[in-house]
Amino acid sequence: MIIVKKLKEAVDFLKKGGVIIYPTETAYGLGCDSTNQEALDLIFKIKQRPQAKTLPLIAGSLAMVKKWVILNKQEEILAKKYWPGALTLVLKNKKEVGLSKSVVAKDNTVAIRISSNKIARTLAQRLGRPIVSTSANISGAKEIYSVTDLKKSFKKLSTDCIYTVDGGVLKRRAPSTVARIRNGKIEVLRQGGLKIT
């Protein structure tokens, strides 16, 4: 595992199809270019997670979100109220934009948010498209909040297959809340640390 502090190195690695570990507003996340299926396959392998489960995304801005998914008026109001923040919205994918199959559900929806963590947002902004954001742990294990714990958890990984952006020790927070608008009403699919009012 290579520890980096310069975001340019991490973005260059993403552009080459690499996988990174980076801080978010909840815990450390595993990420890659959301259009690169080979990189996504590596994340599933690292997490030991079934590929039938799609992975969520982090975007750098609302403009970026609108480029990749469809927001209706009600969804946009909800997004503007809680973003940047720990709300993941399930939105309709724009099929023509080229997101990988591992981030698009069978009903053609994508789970996406704008993180309140500046590093996470900046990575997506500099890459120019959303990045994958799944918890940096083995599937079913606890979330990780420090680089020290990351090293213990991923000590068997090859040093050339993953970059880690050191964001320090993160505050222990619950995962993001996952919600969608259905029939004009807010439906919470996973209650995280954020409560929608």
Automatic annotation (TrEMBL):
Any one of the GO CC terms: cytoplasm
GO biological process, one term: regulation of translational fidelity
InterPro entries for this protein: DHBP_synth_RibB-like_a/b_dom (IPR017945), Sua5-like_dom (IPR006070), TC-AMP_synthase_SUA5 (IPR050156)
Domain YrdC-like span(s) in chain numbering: 4-194
Record's catalysed reaction(s): L-threonine + hydrogencarbonate + ATP = L-threonylcarbamoyladenylate + diphosphate + H2O
PROSITE patterns: YRDC
Localization terms from the record: Cytoplasm
EC number: 2.7.7.87
A single MF term (Gene Ontology): tRNA binding
Pfam families to which the protein is assigned, alphabetical: Sua5_yciO_yrdC (PF01300)
Keyword list, A-Z: ATP-binding, Cytoplasm, Nucleotide-binding, Nucleotidyltransferase, Transferase, tRNA processing
Similarity comment text for this entry: Belongs to the SUA5 family.
Name of the protein this chain belongs to: L-threonylcarbamoyladenylate synthase
Source organism per UniProt: Candidatus Magasanikbacteria bacterium GW2011_GWA2_42_32
Lineage: Bacteria, Candidatus Magasanikiibacteriota
